[in-house]
Amino acid sequence: MKLIVAIVQDEDASRLVGKLMDAGFGVTKLATTGGFLRAGNTTLLAGVDDNRLDDAMAVIEKVCKSRKQMATAPTSMAGVGGASYSPYPIEVMVGGATVFVLPVEQFVKL
Ligand code: 2BA
């Protein structure tokens, strides 16, 4: 078994959860925040059997779109009291999905 950790954009999250559930996968949805943009995104946890990993990845790839996002990103100059922010908006291309696949040592429901 594998654990898929997929960081996706909020806009894609509900549809992706629906499609994964329709395909028979169990999913947990977490509200998360990206470290660079400091904006909300969504992290999905899905435990999948090894022989269904490719199916789950295909669903994620189909649903998640890359988008340009304007952001006032933190600069590397740390000011008093924390990171400072550039006054100029920058354009970044945000995935798709950032996906980690981890081996699962044990899966139990108690
Ligand atoms: P954020 O950290 O808010 O990053 C949003 C987007 O900003 C990134 O999109 C990338 O296009 C850009 N970006 C990030 N760091 C940058 C930098 N130092 N300089 C210039 N541009 C930068 P994605 O790469 O698609 O990442 C989307 C979200 O996935 C990230 O949101 C973060 O929450 C997560 N993520 C990405 N890589 C990760 C990693 N190695 N470990 C954990 N989470 C990760």
Q: What would you note in describing this structure?
A:
With 110 residues, the chain is of the alpha+beta class. It has a four-stranded antiparallel β-sheet. Strands 4-7 form a two-stranded antiparallel sheet. Strand 2 and strand 3 form a beta hairpin. The longest helix has 13 residues. The model has no long low-confidence stretch (mean pLDDT 90). The site of ligand 2BA has 12 residues, from strand 7.
What's the helix and strand layout?
Elements: E1 2-8, H1 10-22, E2 28-33, E3 40-48, H2 53-63, E4 67-71, E5 74-79, E6 82-85, E7 90-94, E8 97-103
Antiparallel strand pairs: 1-3, 1-8, 2-3, 4-7, 5-6
This protein binds ligand 2BA.
Ligand 2BA binds next to β7.
Top keywords for this entry?
110 residues, alpha+beta, four-stranded antiparallel β-sheet, two-stranded antiparallel sheet, 22% helix, binds ligand 2BA
Structural class: alpha+beta
Mean pLDDT: 90
Gyration radius from CA atoms, angstroms: 17 Å
How much beta, percentage-wise? Answer: 35-45%
What is the rounded distance between the termini? 18 Å
- The H-and-E topology, N to C, reads as EHEEHEEEEE
